[in-house]
Amino acid sequence: MEFTGVEDCGNSPKNLRLARWEHSLALGEWDEVAAMLTDETRLEVASRGALDATTGSDVLDRLRDIRDELTGGAVEAALTHGREGATWGSWQRPDGQVQFAHAFRFATVKADRFALIRFVHS
Cα separations (Å) of 40 from 19, 20, 26, 30, 58? Predict the structure, then answer.
């Protein structure tokens, strides 16, 4: 699988952390993905006018389902400000390309874990 991303996020370790998390998610590196989650992390998936929410231990399973059959992709940008952040790019699936925008709220000032993740996919 080829997954490209933001390699240079200026002087922002938080931006780079988001880009690396997206990379780990795309490649199915579940230990790295899980390291950013807490027992209270909330995942919201917005699609076709509906919002599907999952919290806690079910988040990792839901992320596995979302990532299923991913064959490639790219992160175009990873941005943060304070306790919020966002990434966007595309995923390649067997049936075509999917655009994504992911928004994040960090659980800590250090930005080492997520309180909230919102996925919006085309």
Answer: 22, 22, 22, 18, 10
Distance CA 102, CA 11 (A): 21
Describe the strand order of the beta sheet including 96-106 as a list of residue ranges. 2-4, 72-81, 84-93, 96-106, 114-121, 42-47, 50-55
Taking each helix axis from N to C terminus, what angle separates 58-67 and 13-27, rounded to the nearest 10 degrees? 70
Output the pLDDT for position 6: 66
pLDDT at 3: 73
Please list the ranges in the chain whose pLDDT falls under 50: none
* Bridge pairing between strands 42-47 and 50-55: antiparallel
What's the one-letter identity of residue 21?
W
What is the residue type of 9? C
